[in-house]
Fold each of these.
Amino acid sequence: MISKTELEHAARLLKEGQLVAIPTETVYGLAANALNAEAVARIYEVKGRPASSPLIVHVASVEMARGLARDWPEAAEALAARFWPGPLTLVVERTEAVPGIVTAGLGTVGLRMPSHPIALALIRLAGVPVAAPSANRFTELSPTTAEHVRASLGDRIECILDGGPCEVGIESTVLSVAGGAPVLLRPGMISHAQLEAVLGRTVAIGGAVEGAHPSPGMHERHYAPRTTVYLVRNGQLPAGRGAYLYVDRRAEAEFAVAMPPDAVRYAQVLYEALHRADEARLEWIAVEAPPDGAEWSAVHDRLRRAATRE
Ligand code: AMP
Ligand code: MG
């Protein structure tokens, strides 16, 4: 893990307007002081990400979140009480304290309190909320280890905090509670059903609404390895040499990876498996479609985005 000195150094960098790569329980983030527009501009520059994509702001408490929200609806209060710290981003109306560059000019901001102890300690120590998208170049696969961050951004940032492999392994669930009726903008490991249970009401699924937001999840090649990814059924592999990720083995391949049979553990290792398959530099990566069922919906969503072919 990391020392107090390292953490203090990282907090100082954040306060000075520099970038720090941080572990969170979802994926590694490229963090900057969210209240410093110049620092946030560096995130876009380093990632090569278009400034039309809003960033998630990470906080260390519900109070810190409330301070950035023009309106903190009851739904936000109930969901934060139940799921924070954890992999749920709440989109609410923002105050003027949040620079427009953080939210791609939107009047709303996505807020999340991460549960990773290093992320929390760093935000507390820096004393400011941190804007942090995944710590990879734009369109690349999200990093779930410090090594992934080093491979993608090691030549562009000085400070990478190593907090071990990410426990959740895929990006947070994103829910908008800004417009009155709650809308799920991105599925994650906190499920649609869990959100509805806490809210005691129907949660719309955001295809159309998400289209109204310039959100990075909409870019086709988001979350994708460099190697062509095929989502396959019944072991229908392409010709040539490739990697085959399966729960239920249906075929033989050069590089075969057994994936865990439950959705939580599958999500945990998905990006690591894709990173390794990608590094093998084969002709393709084929992923056997995992089971259907609500608990798999976030995994299916990320696989659809990673797959260039179906
Ligand atoms: P990433 O930083 O790559 O994990 O992606 C951030 C995600 O947060 C996007 O896919 C959006 O769905 C969502 N998001 C962040 N801020 C907002 C916002 N103000 N309005 C709508 N969606 C947002
Ligand atoms: Mg990303």
Note: Residues 146 and 162 are 5 Å apart (CA to CA).
Amino acid sequence: MGMKVLVIGSGAREHAIATTLLEGGSVEEVTVAPGNPGMRRDGILTTQLNPSNHAALIDFVRDNAYDWVFVGPEVPLMEGIVDDFAAAGIRAFGPTKAAAQIEGSKDFAKQLMERHGIPTASYRTFDELEEAERYVRDHGAPIVVKADGLAAGKGVTVAMDADAALKALEDIFLGHRFGAAGAKVVIEDYLEGQEFSLMSFVDGTRFWTMPVSQDHKRALDGDKGPNTGGMGAYSPVPQIGADVVDAAVETIVRPAVQAMSEEGYPFVGVLYAGLIATADGPKVIEFNARLGDPETEVVLPRLASDLGAAIDAILDGRDPVFTWKDSGATLGVVLASDGYPTNVVKGARVPDIPVRDGEHVYYAGVATGDDGGLVASSGRVLFVQTHGDDIASAQKRAYEILDSVDTTGMFYRHDIGAKALASLR
Ligand code: AMP
Ligand code: GLY
């Protein structure tokens, strides 16, 4: 009998986690709470439970005898879902509330990095407008303003001139744009270089890195438009050399895992390092306490070994096995509702997307329409993941697919992977 697993979350990331678990072999049944109706097309079960209702989730896991739980998104982690499961005797893969602070509080993350010499942009924290304004005036631009706490990727302003930074500060302190998250602000130096994501499975003291990937955070082609949750991704990232990845592992991932263990909040789960390859080596932009979205949707398809068996091993204190496909490339493009991320127009009809073996459609913001088909129910609707011998061929397939379907009421970027292709020219 294979294992039964509950995945917490509802997006394309959770669809990819569930699919990868099922493809691995040792997991035979996956339920996603709350999931979405698109996932059900792939034989994934869903249950209408709210990730914040820990008591109901605990009952559900017990009643249905799940082997363990995989927590996808950050919010339940920061609410202590792993601690609550543990107190109920349920194994859950993800960090405790204490360890999840590495994502939940920029100030916590920055202080940890400072104590342990982990390279990151230098920064200062302010809880008062006037002082923050003075710092920006003294320091000049480019400069980066971040609301402390969670603001769903929208709490960051990369200001290329001082006025933009001052406006961001006013929005945070006077406009209360980010609620409680705006009580504190981190102002940091601008880092110049290519951005990449390095995620690792961590068991508290040891870690297993995944292939690197690159997200596309801006809404529009050419990195124009507002920051979003991510519009596309690819893996590997040929313009980031193995020497840079090795440096990131040794100067960032290893000391971070060790520091958290030594300081009494060992990290179990996926540690996501958002990095910039600067002229002085890789530096941290942010840590996340979970798999990245959309990076997961291009990284997990490159796993050659059994994900469920590996997570089960980590949760039992055994040695997990992770092996990755070492050739070829994966790429994927987000199909989003018109107006995303600022004025989302929901309700577009979601077309059937024709994919081949090894390609996937991972659903996110979809609901069941009156005629039983899928309709767009939020900003990011779905993710089309392809693969090829290289990024150029994976990119060609992704746009062949998207260009062949009716995307009325939705849009997508046309240049996912362009930076990798430019670097190879
Ligand atoms: P974050 O929410 O911290 O990931 O920031 C959102 C985006 O802002 C990042 O993906 C980067 O593109 C950019 N960013 C954040 N911090 C910096 C920095 N110190 N220097 C340059 N760009 C940054
Ligand atoms: N792709 C960035 C994130 O997951 O935070």
Note: The mean pLDDT is 95.
